[in-house]
Amino acid sequence: MTAEGVDVAAVRRIPGGVSPSAAILVDAQGERLVCAYNNPKPDAAASWRPLERDADCHGVLGVVRWPEGPAAVFDAAARHGILRVFDGVVDSRETLVDLAKPTTHAVFSQPGLAYASGTSPPWGRNHVLARAVPSLVGVLGPDGFLWREGSRERRIRAPKMVAIGTLAAGDVWHGAFTLALAEGQDVAGPGRMANAAAEIKCALAGGRLGTQR
User: What CATH number is associated with residue 147?
Assistant: First the structure.
């Protein structure tokens, strides 16, 4: 991570902790299946994280793998008026809704939306989630990025392409989306940029290694 230019000074080593691992299967169409192992007893404490460093950020991005971490980051960022983006993937409804509430932008995957709202097609029937999460922006799926502006439904369709590997495409999408929002663009611009970044990723094999070119 350091070799890739990532600041890992705040990474914490947990005594007795078990690092996650995964076996990832990729088919001929580039779709992937992740068979992951995560520590069943992670350290839930988030008080050690240097939240004061977030005051210098333009935006933060959180996922659900360690709920206590992004919850603390979102609360700290809200106090400083910092952009807060939530990547809503699969987890319990309670966790997804609780993490999405304090954010400025929540973008769910289709499975994540189904878990959070109890319904699968985006919009139309997800009004319960929209009321619970004021920051709800949109949903990602095979048809691209779908969001609402007031009562108007908008969509940026997924590029037509031959996928080599979809592993990490969602992470790339949310990273690019957050960056463009932090640069001051509205939702449409970041959506287009994120779609393009994810398209480039899907044209390359590998997860992290496939994001380097």
Answer: 3.40.1190.20
At residue 119, the pLDDT reads 65
* C-beta of residue 32 within 8 angstroms of C-beta of residue 26: yes
Within a domain: residue 132?
yes
Provide the token pair at 189.
Answer: 């611009």
Q: 176 lies in which domain range?
A: 21-211
| Cα 148 from Cα 135, distance rounded (Å) | 11
Q: Count structural domains, the chain.
A: 1
Query: Can you tell me whether residue 14 is helix, strand or coil?
Result: coil
| AA identity, residue 148 | R
pLDDT tens for residues 110-146? 888 888 877 655 554 445 677 778 787 888 877 789 8
Residue 9 included in any domain: no
**Contacts for 212 with CB less than 8 Å, ≥ 6 apart:** 4
The reported pLDDT for the residue numbered 54 is 80
